[in-house]
What does this fold into?
Amino acid sequence: MLVGVGGLMATEAGVASAQTSTASVLYVASGGNDQNGSNTCTSPSAPCATVIQALSQAGSGATIYVTGTIDEPDTATITSPVTIIGTATPGGPAVIDDTAASGSSVVYVPNPVTANLDDLTLTGGSYSLGAGINIANSGATVNVTDSTISGNTAPNAGGGIYNYGTVDVTDSTISGNIGSNGAGGIYNNNGKVNITDSTISGNDAGSGSGGGTYNYGTVDVTDSTISGNTAGGRGGGIANVGPANVTDSTISGNTAAGGGGGIVNFFGSLDYGHSVFAGNSCVFIAAASDTGGNVTDPASSTCASGSEPTSLTAADLGPLAYNGGPTETIALLVPHTGTNPAIGAVTTGCTATDQRGMPRPTSGCDAGAYQTGTYTPTVAAAPASQSINPGATATVTATLDISGSAAPAGFPVDFSVTGGPDSGQSAAAVTTSSGTATFTVANVGASGTDVISVTSPVAPGASAPGVVTAAAPVEVVVGAPPAFRSAATAYFPWLGADTTFHIQVTGTPTPTVTLTGALPQGLSFDPANDTITGRAGLFALGSHDVTLSAANGTGAPAVQTLDIVIGFAPFVLAPPQATFTVGRPGDLRVLAFAYPTAAITETGTLPAGISLADNGNGTARLSGTPAAGSTGRYPITVTATNPFGASARRVTIDVNGPPPRRHGHRD
It folds into this structure.
């Protein structure tokens, strides 16, 4: 059995020097850099690598934000008031892992200061007393909230926590710690321990007593679960020497080789009420005050002085599991017999909520840390739709309601991307005190629309057990920059029929198109349909430039100069017949009246030596010297073409033979 060692001050390796900085906000992250001890830790973009370094830079009352898993080479010693907060992921606190080769606590508090530890996991500690947290000053106060202390080993006692001051454990888990000579979870040495809405489970006291907690000071356990702890001595769940109070709690499945699997009260004062004792090797509560409303199973009652044996059986209790709330609990079930003696066992004095934060009735509530009841959960996600750039992230928020009220902190919410470029991404989160949980989608760089499903597993006692799904999934539109797909020139007939030009753009989400500049007479822009439409007026003939811009919030807007051409189809002027003579140059002019200027071509067989040349100004020349032997008639077609149409003219070319050769006469 452990005895009091009042005034004991543990000596730790690696105690940091006195803090002289005045930094008020500091940052620590996995992958950070202590830069040979010079990093000030004051920038989130340049965090330190260890909490030890941040503490050495912190001023009194500083806040240290911790992200990821931090490998601490020694003890993080707190010598002035500080708050250390984990900021890893929703429901996934940051980890401070003591990797020191020699024995050391994860956190050591030797001074009369207040330290707040929030959303952290403390693990890997190995020290004689208090391998996880060593509170070695009677004036020190440590507040542990929403945190886990697990996987620490004390060769002597207090695998999870050694307390000589005051420690408040709220919404937290103390599990899987070893105290080889006693107090696997918490060793309270003449201090004050408050355990509220928390779970003490799976701790081992080795050959000593107090698998979950050994109290040699004052301890209050409220709305908490003590389960699955073991001791080679006595008191698998709690070994008590000093004043202790256990209220609205569940003591289940604890074992002790020396007796008192649930609670052993050596010679201190112990009050217990509104609690469930089940599955313990032997409760062994001696010289204690039963304040009423307790329920035990027959096995647990065999060595409990003044206990209240009932017909409670293993079928009345669920396993230690996450049933909502930040910590594991043991649900009260309704077996096939239809009754559970713990349900409604407390007639008066009910607390407002159970361990999970679920409301209790004002009277007739359940014994233990878990309150049954029929409730209707709903989950909704927001925003319904949002847009991000490729490669960016988007945050989705889910809100879980229980019978119209915000769910307590710690209820599970599952997110899953079921469609889109980031399909397959998922996360399990938990609600905050406002009943909300968040999920971050990290886009892989591709555009499209992610469809995100939001669900919440429902704990026993719900009116609709199973899974609750949000009524509508949310969408994250991963944008693609805007671009114009339509031509940079639009043609409208002069004094012709009403005509429409469709401006076509690509991009996600759909871009908005704006037009600046003066449109030709008779035309108008419709931004709802991205069209330019109308009948070009008398004075509109010509070319007119306007500027188009397309924007969708992704990347830079696309800009295009649109040339609006008001014109008419060509009319060809050319003689129907032209005569050329072999060996003599000839020329025929062709005129195409059009806007814009028409291109002039010919089809048919031209005489050898004759060709058509388009001058590029609406005129052409059919010219050349017919070659010998090309006498004859040549029908061809001359065609003028522009964007508004074409006009053809048939021309017949006659090639005469060479003139007769003149000979001289002799008289």
About this structure: The helical segments are 51-57, 298-301. The mean pLDDT is 88. The first strand starts at residue 23 and ends at 29.
